[in-house]
Structures are given as structure tokens and as C-alpha cells.
Amino acid sequence: MHATSPETLALREAVLSYARARMEYDPAPLDAPDTLENLQRLAPDTVNEKGLGGQAALSLFAEVLAPACLSTDHPGYLSFIPTAPTEAATLFDLVVSASSIYGGSWMEGAGAVYAENEVLAWLAREVGFDESAGGVFVQGGTLGNLSALVAARHTAEAKLAADGKSRPARWKFVCSKEAHSSLKAAARVMDVDVVLAEVDGEGRLRGQAVLDALESAGDGVFAIVSTAGTTNFGIVDRLREVGEIANAAGIWYHVDGAYGLAGILSDKTKYLFDGTELADSFIVDPHKWLFAPFDACALVYRNPALAKAAHTQHGEYLDTLTDSGDWNPSDYAYNLTRRVRGLPLWFSLATHGVGAYREAVSDNIQVASEIAEVIRNNPKLKLVREQELSVVVFEREGWSLKDYERWSDYLLHEGIGLVVPSSHLGKPNTRFAIVNPQTTTELLIKILDTMEQM
Ligand SMILES: *Cc1c(COP(=O)(O)O)cnc(C)c1O
């Protein structure tokens, strides 16, 4: 086990060369999930008293386990929201792993926390927040939304207490019917109610629907949530209309931009995000459309002191940190120990510059609008909704769920892509979510063409 033993050195080389080989694929094989029974047969008893030895464990991973994981960065992986980290970001994730940086406090991770904050400050500037904004990178949008809502409720509670008023019977927040499932999950964790506002014909939350929801909700509304790019369709709510209502009512305004807010970087779609600056908090996931590896969500508050009041953990062994007055990332979300998961994005931004990101996001939107046009012009295909960002949802005339499934299985089996069925209002469809610079219009046309063979 000595750090310089020949076995250790050889394993170090083997693992690093595995990582290098994975990065050098162009593209990596798509791969496919395997059954539990097969994995139990092919990789039995991997955790035992003696250990397998590093080389054997690595071989097992390379030959059995890794091929049973989908390559979500494959250009044909188009379902859910794919990921497409830059090489710079992936390389730096290795550095983060090798560096044992504690990202919860300034005292322990000042340099890395400074760099993460540079990225958060850039995002804050993009949406029009001023310099007092700040936040933290958390694990994902689910945790980002929860943390923002906890800060919102805490703020509402403090306001009631300051006014000498009593608490409402139930706390509630308003979001649209097309908002992400993580908001409902947050409501369950917080034991609060969700008031679902209607959307317009395009799936967008608008001001009037928020006014209606507020009226039906009665008292106890502590937050209004807009979605800046729904996961299913990439539709952006009317952020300014909703924000003005929230601000006028003195209710916390949160913008969930986990997938779509990156679209603010493109001149083509920047106008859609007008009004984000009215938010009290927003999130955007670098692992979705900011070309960073899993897993990271940037959570930014207009007034971070409100989040700190809600989230700081107190304890005898922590007091030396919490009393210091330093910027401690752990104070701004539901977390304590944390990986400096914003650093891969920081390194990639510092390497390539923001301009490269604007271009890459614009290119994805261009590919999406090109394939939307192809679909529009194909009499057998129909767009379910007009594409707005980089998600394209469409139906094939006469296809049932079974047809989509058969086609999807074929694409996966052939290693062409992952395009799973989806549905809207009970009707099956499928969708392309495009966040990978290697996903070209040509590839998407090729995938559409395979529908003819079904
Ligand atoms: C993906 C997504 C989330 C959840 O983010 P995770 O990183 O998967 O936890 C929340 N909101 C929206 C709009 C999303 O697209």
C-alpha cells in the first residue's frame, strides 16, 4: 500500500491511461444498460475481504461495468437532457478529484471558492444582477430549487415575525403546470403546498395565470417560480410579466433555468430571458447546457444574506468558520461538506473564454431550428410545438407508443443514438434535446431517416 510501490505506480498509470483513452474516443461508443442478472454473473463478489487488486478491478470496470453505462456525451444521445463537457472541463474534474479541496468554507478552500465565485458572478452579470449577488454550486437543479425555496420561506417567515403576524395555516408556492418535477419534490420535503398555475397554448406561464393562482391560493404564498426553458419542450415562461407581479406583491421570485437559462448566452434567444433580473434567485445547471461534467448546479441569489440566514449550520466545531465573516459556500444551500464542483466550468471558461460558450449555445439552437424545419417540411412528421431553445418535440403520423419503442430499441441496438418515446396530453411523441456540439443536423436527419425502415 506504500505510495511508491511498483504496484501503485503501475495502477496510477493504468487508471490515467484509461481516462485518457475514454477522452480520446471520437465519439465514445454509445453502450447500453445491462440486466442485474448479467452483471451479477459477469462481475460477482467485487467487494470482499481480500480485494480484487487494482488491475483486476480496473479491467472489470473497463470490460463489464463501463459498457453497461450509456455515454451521455454521445452525439446521438438526445433524450432527457444529455451532457457534453468540454475536454478542458473534464480534465479539470480529474484535478478536482486529485486535489482534496474542501469547498464548504473560505478558510479551507479560499482559492477554489474564489474561482467558483468568479463563475457565479459572471452568471449573475449575464442575467442583470448587481455585484452584491452570490451563491453556490450544488449537486443539481433539484437541490438548487429546494435550497432557493427554503431561503424564500425563511425570508417570508422572518417578515411575518418582524410584522408581529402569525404564520399561515399552510405555506405555498406558485409554479406552472409544466414546471419541473423537482419543484413538487421540494414541496414534499418542505411540507408545503404547490399552487399550479395554468399555461397558455404554447405551454408558457403568463402574468394573468399567476394573478389567478394567487387569488385562488389565498394567504401563505412565499414564492413564485418561473421556468426558463421547460425540460420537456424548452419553453421559457414570460419572465418579466411574472417577475413584476412577484416583486409588486413582495413575494420571492425564483427562476428555474436548470436546462434553458444557458440560452441567455445566444443573441438568437437572449430576449426570451428578459426579466430574469427581477428574480430573487435563479439556477442553471452546468452539466446540462454549459458543457461541464456531472454534477453541478449554479444557484445564485440577488441578496445572499437572506439565503445565509436560512441555511447556515451552527455547531460547536463549526463556530470558528461561521463567526469569521468569510464567504463560506456551505451557508448558501442545503449542504455542508462539498466538492468544488464549479471548478471544471471555471477552468473551461478561463481556457476558452465566454465567447466560445455564446457560440456553442447558438450553434445548438441553430441545429435545433434546422431540424425543426426538416420536420415541418416532412408530411409524415409534425412538430408538437414550435421549437424555442434546443429541444425539438415531434410526432410521426400514425405511430403508436409501440412504434416509437421499436424504433428507439433499434437506434440503441445499432449504437446510433438514444431517442426514447415521450408524450404530450396522453399522445406519444419523441424529442431531440440538443446540447452537444457534436450533434449535427446531418446526424439528426440520418436518425429521422431510420423511421422509414420501421
Ligand atoms: C433538470 C432540471 C431540474 C433538475 O435538475 P437536476 O440537476 O437533474 O437535479 C430542475 N428544473 C429543470 C427545469 C430541469 O430541466
UniProtKB/TrEMBL annotation:
GO terms for molecular function: carboxy-lyase activity; pyridoxal phosphate binding. SUPFAM superfamilies: PLP-dependent transferases. One of its GO terms (biological process) is amino acid metabolic process. Its cofactor is pyridoxal 5'-phosphate. Keywords: Lyase, Pyridoxal phosphate. InterPro entries: Aromatic_deC (IPR010977), PyrdxlP-dep_de-COase (IPR002129), PyrdxlP-dep_Trfase (IPR015424), PyrdxlP-dep_Trfase_major (IPR015421), PyrdxlP-dep_Trfase_small (IPR015422), Pyridoxal-P_BS (IPR021115). Belongs to the group II decarboxylase family. This is Unannotated protein. It comes from freshwater metagenome.
